[in-house]
User: Which sequence fits this backbone?
């Protein structure tokens, strides 16, 4: 391996081969306090380096970087490349950068010459310089001229112009073809016998010396082409790297744009939340101080419509996002339903084969008490402030006041344990009457008193398990496995209307045909032969929600129905799911549905069409969405988040469940999930 050479060595080797350069002539015109031969030797050796494309690009990169010029700053070859000397006869004076190069002569002479990279490692700088100058094509022009043969004028130029449909100079002036004698093709009129013409190459003899010279020139031209090709490839690679870097910059800018869009949507939600809070505080301030308000049953506005940021402890901002920071362990079976009043508020959770939902204080993570009264597991529930409604396998709906739930040390005693089977008693006629826990009687059901515990009201009417419910103000809608929907008045506890889903299936609305019926479910519906087809098929109504007089339900036939609560008629049916619908939510413009067919669908309320379909690997059991994201339980050990702005997906797994998530609920940046591992996890979003 050759030892490294310095600029002094290079200069001593090349100075003997080159004559006085132009730079020496120019420098002779100026007087400097340094040796002219030193700077001449440096610049003449580095001249090919400064003219290569690689050095020019390196100079552009160096110029784009900020630099600080201090006293006696050290210079290297890169500094010399980006601050070349410029001397002339004009009015321009020498700058400080020019003087730095002159003052650093000795340092530059002792500096090591950097090893070449890329194309320069195969081709010398001088060779590359010679291959790129215009004089490299002179050999080809000379050889072409040597092959020219003197022949009579053929008028080829005129023939070429005529073939292209262009006018010659004579036609432009005279508007008719007048050719000179030199440009005319003379056709002999004699009819003498023609002899074969000799080849043009026979009249030209180049000689051995000329042919050898042409061989060497051709080989040199081929080498020049190789050098040029290498240089062009190097430039193409550099452009490719720049394009890739620009693509990265573009992607980063697009991500910034998406984040700005998300921030815009977040500000819209925050604005709506501030307006709602303003209306709430104005309503409170408008109440008379002496007015009597019934505080036993307070029915607040639904938190499903609440927008904007929630009230959170100051320490919540210190939590890392996407991490489960709290685990609630008390259940022994998979979670079937959960809901909470507000972040760090009150949580109610229910599980399979457990008739007593747990009540938790999310601020401390401790269990407050249990809701006793149902026979069988609780399938659905909703919490608003201190009010909770639960629907169970016994077909009943119970209204609870969570402020009256207290820790009871005698839960495990036989006196307070809910019996596994309903109690039976005989009436005056000798008939057995079911009397579970002393709540259901043969006669009229009396209204529960406050002394009876936290259960404030019992709603009876469904013949099978209640699987979905939604309440707002004094209106409640429930869906059950008996394939009916019921509307209730919570102030009186009476069923106002019953909507039969089977009747709606057999009598489809006229608008349903506009959206197609690809599965022919509207005309002839039949349940699967075996319940094993879908594990949750018994929960025929997967979700209900209303807004004003508009009610939306998702059922086991895979259809989304929109009902008019004033008439009890289904006026629109949205078909698309191939499995039972397990959950849904809707706002002013969209409906989000999840199904056992392993899809989530986002519908447009105005057109009834599907905006987006998201496919997952497992059935969807729970979802919630806002303007920015969709959070779903889709068979993962954490919540799956679909970003509606960037169309990206992510799963929360850090310190998550050990089995798939079944239920979830979130407010602002606070998420609660319940899984098949019988635990409840609290997440920070």
Assistant:
């Amino acid at each position: 391996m050759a030892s490294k050479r310095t600029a002094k060595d290079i200069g001593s080797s090349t100075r003997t081969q080159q004559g006085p350069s132009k730079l020496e002539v120019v420098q002779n015109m100026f007087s400097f306090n340094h040796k002219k031969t030193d700077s001449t030797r440096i610049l003449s050796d580095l001249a090919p380096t400064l003219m290569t494309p690689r050095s020019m690009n390196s100079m552009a990169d160096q110029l784009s970087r900020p630099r600080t010029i201090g006293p006696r700053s050290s210079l290297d070859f890169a500094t010399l490349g980006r601050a070349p000397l410029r001397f002339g006869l004009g009015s321009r004076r020498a700058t400080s950068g020019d003087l730095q190069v002159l003052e650093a002569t000795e340092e530059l002479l002792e500096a090591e010459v950097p090893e070449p990279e890329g194309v320069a490692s195969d081709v010398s700088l001088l060779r590359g310089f010679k291959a790129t100058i215009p004089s490299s094509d002179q050999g080809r022009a000379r050889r072409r001229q040597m092959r020219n043969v003197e022949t009579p004028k053929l008028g080829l130029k005129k023939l070429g112009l005529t073939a292209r449909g262009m006018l010659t100079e004579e036609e432009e002036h005279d508007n008719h073809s007048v050719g000179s004698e030199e440009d005319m093709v003379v056709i002999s009129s004699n009819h003498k016998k023609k002899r074969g013409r000799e080849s043009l190459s026979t009249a030209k003899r180049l000689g051995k010396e000329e042919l050898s010279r042409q061989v060497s020139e051709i080989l040199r031209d081929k080498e020049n082409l190789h050098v040029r090709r290498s240089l062009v490839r190097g430039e193409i690679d550099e452009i490719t790297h720049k394009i890739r870097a620009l693509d990265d910059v573009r992607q980063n800018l697009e991500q910034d744009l998406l984040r700005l869009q998300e921030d815009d949507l977040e500000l819209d939600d925050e604005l709506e939340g501030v307006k709602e809070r303003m209306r709430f505080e104005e309503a409170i301030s408008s109440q008379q101080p002496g007015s009597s308000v019934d505080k036993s049953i307070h029915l607040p506005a639904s938190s499903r419509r609440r927008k904007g940021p929630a009230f959170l402890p100051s320490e919540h901002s210190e939590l890392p996002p996407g991490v489960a920071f709290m685990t609630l362990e008390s259940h022994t079976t998979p979670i079937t339903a959960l809901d909470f009043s507000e972040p760090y508020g009150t949580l109610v959770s229910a599980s399979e084969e457990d008739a007593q939902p747990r009540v938790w204080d999310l601020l401390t993570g401790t269990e407050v008490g249990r809701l006793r009264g149902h026979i069988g597991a609780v399938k659905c529930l909703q919490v608003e402030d201190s009010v909770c409604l639960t629907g169970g396998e016994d077909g009943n709906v119970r209204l609870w006041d969570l402020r009256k739930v207290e820790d009871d040390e005698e839960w495990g005693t036989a006196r307070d344990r809910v019996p596994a089977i309903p109690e039976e008693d005989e009436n005056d006629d000798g008939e057995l009457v079911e009397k579970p826990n002393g709540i259901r009687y043969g006669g009229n059901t009396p209204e529960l008193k406050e002394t009876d515990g936290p259960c404030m009201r019992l709603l009876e009417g469904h013949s099978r398990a209640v699987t979905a419910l939604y309440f707002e103000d004094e209106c409640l809608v429930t869906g059950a496995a008996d394939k009916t929907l019921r509307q209730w008045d919570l102030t009186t506890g009476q069923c106002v209307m019953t909507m039969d889903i089977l009747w709606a299936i057999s009598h489809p609305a006229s608008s349903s045909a506009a959206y197609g019926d690809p599965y022919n479910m509207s005309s002839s519906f039949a349940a699967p032969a075996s319940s094993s087809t879908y594990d949750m098929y018994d929960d025929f109504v997967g979700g209900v929600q209303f807004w004003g007089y508009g009610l939306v339900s998702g059922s086991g036939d895979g259809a989304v129905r929109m009902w008019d609560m004033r008439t009890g008629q289904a006026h629109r049916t949205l078909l698309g799911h191939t499995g039972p619908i397990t959950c849904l939510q809707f706002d002013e413009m969209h409906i989000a549905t999840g199904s056992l067919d392993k899809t989530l669908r986002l519908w447009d309320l105005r057109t009834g069409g599907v905006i987006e379909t998201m496919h997952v690997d497992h059935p969807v059991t729970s979802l919630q969405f806002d303007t920015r994201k969709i959070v779903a339980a889709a068979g993962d050990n954490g919540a799956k988040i679909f970003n509606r702005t960037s169309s990206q997906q992510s799963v929360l797994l850090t310190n998550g469940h050990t089995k798939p998530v079944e239920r979830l609920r979130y407010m602002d940046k606070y998420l609660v999930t319940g899984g098949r591992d019988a635990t409840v996890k609290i997440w920070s979003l």
Notes: Residues 7-115 form one domain. The chain has a mean pLDDT of 75. Residues 208-286 form the longest helix (79 residues).
